[in-house]
Design a protein that fits this description.
Layout: E1 7-11, H1 28-39, E2 44-46, H2 75-81, H3 102-123, H4 126-138, H5 140-163, H6 170-173, H7 176-179, H8 183-192, H9 194-220, E3 224-229, H10 238-242, E4 257-261, E5 271-276, H11 280-285, H12 289-301, E6 304-307, E7 315-320, E8 330-333, H13 336-347, E9 352-354, H14 362-370, E10 375-378, H15 385-391, E11 409-412, H16 421-427, H17 430-440, H18 450-460, E12 465-469, H19 470-473, H20 503-515
Parallel strand pairs: 1-2, 1-12, 2-3, 3-6, 6-9, 10-11, 11-12
Antiparallel strand pairs: 4-5, 4-7, 7-8
Helix pairs in contact: 3-9, 4-5, 5-9, 12-13
């Protein structure tokens, strides 16, 4: 991203698109959404991590940092390519239109995706088979182990459920020979599960082919894809099973030191995330090859990538795994400069945005600036309830107020972790709401909603990119919140209604983008259109 290239963007994870199969996907509605962005003059589509998810459905605790989420594969697009699939699809369940009910979607969709993979293997012509073989060869660094891991996980998850076991984690439940990747045991299981493993590989082929075509269409519509990459990976993932030497594990392969953040004003116990921390000396010994491959893959998926918890590259809050809270952790330095220098040497200029929220020290800021990485600003964080209600005035020096932004940043009304701006504004007490209104220039006679006033001041700012969750564009309340941190259940499930992508909303965004110099490429009547 370039500081002199002002753009507007929309934050919307593909699962939230209004597809017909109970969950958003990479099919026709994704193409129509890109048409909507193009019509609105919006040049950035920001998504959350595209990885396969497990318990809790969080895209930040994926089963792999390289693979794509099979649930995002469009059955409609597969039907067009695999006519034999049509007869396999029965009556679609009556899925809710505004929520993803993950268990129901998985029960219905995953068997159909596996059947589609079987049909592909049975009926693929020479060119299709060649494309598949080329994909498998190109992605072999991670694909073989990923396909084996998720196959084994499915097998042992079912076994653990039958036995009533409390945990089916690979390092505590799988046979020791499999957990340690004993060659003879791996060979035996690969033979036993050969069909299932091949099916998983084909599903990844489906995902990457559909995503690649969608990304090409986005480029044709003048829209950049802005991705997201967590700094850490889940312990129960193909990454840790495949490369255990890269993580702080004990002799039983269980996490020894885990990630989190220290206690603060909001949490007396801090946050214990539980992700295994990196064994940095081993990464250094391998010339950061895993990181190079990971970032390279992320940039194949997207034009720009946000790295979550950037401050962890300067120092991590290290918590002994035996601890139940984050209280007894400590800061331990990370080799951020070495890592980013190695990434630049391998990949050139990094189109990376640093999520520099939270406990940010001068050392963290220096690391970000030394590598010319833009940071983040969140408008909801600009107003400090405890301080400002007591004093009766805003803290004009708050770095999240738009007049304090620098051009090298990405500004948001809120992120996936925030409440919607409508719900946030409505929850303010009368005094603070008055201060917010004063900053926004709102009066009792203002016709513009408070949320659109927030969007307006964001677009006015000098921030290179101004990103707004679609929920805020639609002025939706708490029912549309994507995630509430530190809670389980109901997160990651919001879906937008199909009628939201209308010309009235698009024109309103377009007017604001044009007024504040954020308009993307002009509409080309001859550009290709999505199939409706």
């Amino acid at each position: 991203m370039h500081q002199n290239q002002r753009k507007a963007g929309i934050l919307l994870h593909p699962t939230s698109l209004p597809a017909d199969d109970g969950i958003g996907d990479l099919g026709p509605t994704a193409y129509r959404f890109l048409d909507f962005l193009h019509q609105a003059g919006v040049g950035v589509w920001q998504v959350l991590p595209l990885v396969p998810t497990a318990y809790g459905n969080s895209p930040y605790t994926g089963l792999s940092s390289f693979a794509g989420n099979p649930l995002l594969i469009s059955l409609e697009l597969l039907r067009r390519e695999l006519p034999s699939l049509e007869g396999e699809i029965g009556e679609r369940p009556d899925f809710p239109l505004d929520r993803v009910v993950y268990p129901e979607v998985q029960r219905w969709k995953m068997p159909l995706l596996r059947r589609a993979a079987e049909i592909f293997l049975e009926e693929a012509d020479g060119q299709q088979r060649s494309e598949y073989d080329e994909f498998c060869n190109k992605e072999k660094r991670w694909l073989e182990d990923y396909a084996f891991f998720v196959t084994a996980k499915a097998f042992y998850d079912q076994q653990a459920s039958r036995e009533g076991a409390r945990s089916s984690l690979w390092y505590s439940y799988w046979p020791r020979a499999l957990a340690t990747k004993d060659p003879s045991e791996l060979a035996r299981r690969r033979e036993d599960w050969s069909a299932e493993i091949e099916t998983e590989k084909v599903m990844q082929f489906f995902f990457q082919r559909q995503w690649s075509r969608l990304r090409t269409y986005a480029a044709e519509r003048g829209v950049e894809i802005f991705g997201d990459m967590p700094i850490f990976v889940a312990g129960d993932s193909a990454d840790v099973w495949s490369w255990p030497e890269l993580f702080q594990l004990d002799k039983n392969l269980k996490p020894q030191k885990v990630a989190g953040v220290p206690p603060d004003y909001f949490s007396a116990e801090g946050q214990r995330w539980g992700n295994p921390l990196y064994r940095w000396p081993e990464h250094r010994k391998q010339d950061f090859s895993w990181w190079k491959a990971r970032v390279k893959k992320a940039l194949e998926y997207c034009d720009i990538v946000r790295i979550d918890h950037f401050r962890g590259f300067e120092a991590c809050w290290e918590i002994p795994a035996r601890e139940k809270t984050a209280i007894n952790g400590k800061w331990v330095k990370s080799p951020g400069r070495e890592l980013f220098r190695a990434l630049q040497d391998e990949l050139g200029e990094l189109p990376v945005v640093a999520e520099d929220l939270g406990v940010i020290t001068p050392e963290v800021l220096a690391l970000r600036r030394d590598f010319a990485l833009p940071g983040m600003k969140v408008l909801q964080f600009a107003f400090e309830p405890a301080r400002e209600t007591a004093l009766g005035r805003l803290n004009s020096a708050n770095p999240f107020l738009p007049h304090n932004y620098e051009s090298a940043c990405v500004a948001y009304t809120g992120t996936h972790d925030n409440d919607t701006s409508r719900s946030w504004y409505d929850s303010l007490d009368q005094g603070l709401r008055g201060l917010v209104d004063a900053y926004l220039g709102r009066t009792d006679s203002s016709e513009e909603s408070a949320v659109w006033s927030l969007i307006r001041v964001l677009f006015m700012s000098v921030a290179a990119y101004a990103i707004v969750p679609l929920q805020d564009v639609l002025d939706l309340g708490a029912e549309a919140r994507m995630n509430t941190p530190a809670t389980v259940g109901g997160n990651w499930s919001w879906r937008v209604r199909r009628e939201a992508f209308n010309s009235q909303v698009a024109e309103r965004l377009r007017e604001l983008s044009s007024l504040y110099g954020r308009l993307a490429a002009p509409i080309d009547p001859g550009a290709p259109q999505a199939e409706k």
